[in-house]
Structures are given as C-alpha cells and as structure tokens.
Amino acid sequence: MRALCAVVVGLLLCGPGAAVAAKLRTQHTGTVNLNEATAAELDLLPGVGEKAAQRIIEHRQKRPFKRVEELVRVKGFGKKKFLKLKAHLALSGPSTLRVEQVPAPPERKEVSTTKD
Q1: Strands 98-103, 24-29: parallel, antiparallel or unpaired by DSSP?
Q2: Nearest to residue 71, comparing CAs of 82, 57, 87, 55?
Q3: Domain for residue 51, yes or no?
Q4: For all residues of the chain together, what is the average pLDDT?
C-alpha cells in the first residue's frame, strides 16, 4: 500500500504530463543495416545501448555480416535478444528504423471469478 501511495504522490509531484507519459509505449518501425549503420542508428534498436552498438561496429570491421543471424557472435547478443531484434535487422539498403511514442493499449479490468 505504501508503494502505491508513493507512486501516486510521485506522479502528482511531476505534474499531469507524467501520468500521460506513463501511458505511452515505444514502437519501433523500419530496419537497421548491420553493415553500414552508425552507432546512433544501432543504438535505436530496442535493448541496444552505446556499448553494444560499438561492439557491433567493431565486429563488422573485422568481418562484415553475411547473415543477420551472425549478430549472435557479438558479445551480449544471444539467441533470445537476436529474436527480439530480427524484424529490425537488414544487411543492405538504408537504415530506416524509427522509434515512436504510441498510446499504450487500455488496461484490462480484472474480473472476479469468485461467487459471493
């Protein structure tokens, strides 16, 4: 209960924008060319930060990617992470990845299954 109160108070102190921002989520559209993307473009991938982007660049300088599946050879990219990124990876063409803020789907109301 205290944690809930703390969250509500925190949202009230941050102003009305914080409550609205809490109901937004990010949506990634487009692809990133693993062989040509800049560190900033790679950083747009979900779950990829500056250090991971730099590791991708270092890897491709030694050996360019021939298949997107080769990303798992880069430290920090396992099969699970690769599967999350796969839809956004390419080996040719321009990097077109865009990150947008979209409204979160409406919350489901919990339905009680117990009888009174």
Answers
A1: antiparallel
A2: 82
A3: yes
A4: 82
Residue 16 tokens read as: 């009305």
> Residue 36 maps to which CATH number?
1.10.150.320
Asked whether residue 64 is assigned to any structural domain, the reply reads: yes
How far from each other are the two terminal CA atoms of the chain, in whole angstroms? Answer: 25
Which pTM value belongs to this model? 0.68
The reply to whether 21 falls in a domain is: no
pLDDT in tens, 61-116: 999 999 999 999 999 999 999 999 999 999 999 999 998 888 877 777 666 666 65
Number of domains in the chain: 1
Which structural domain range is residue 35 located in? 27-103
Helical spans, DSSP H, in the chain: 2-14, 16-21, 39-43, 50-62, 79-85
pLDDT at 2 > cutoff 60 = no
* Helices and strands, counts by H and E, the chain: 5, 4
